[in-house]
Amino acid sequence: MGKAVAAITGSSGLIGSALAAALRVADHRVLRIVHRAPANSEELHLSPESGEFDRDALADVDVVISSTAT
């Protein structure tokens, strides 16, 4: 199996950050879905209030993981 691409919400939290780190150690690519302006090419912006999100950015993503708090 090749390198997987995972997009993660809640990646700054306890579980999400640990998951992102574990995926990177396993040599997978991680895209963080964030509410603020993206800091680099490994982050995707999502605005729940406006619905703003670049769906095309998920074209090569193998899995989306939600680890956001409720």
TrEMBL record:
<dbReference type="InterPro" id="IPR036291">
    <property type="entry name" value="NAD(P)-bd_dom_sf"/>
</dbReference>
<dbReference type="Pfam" id="PF01370">
    <property type="entry name" value="Epimerase"/>
</dbReference>
<dbReference type="InterPro" id="IPR001509">
    <property type="entry name" value="Epimerase_deHydtase"/>
</dbReference>
<feature type="domain" description="NAD-dependent epimerase/dehydratase">
    <location>
        <begin position="7"/>
        <end position="45"/>
    </location>
</feature>
<protein>
    <submittedName>
        <fullName>NADH(P)-binding family protein</fullName>
    </submittedName>
</protein>
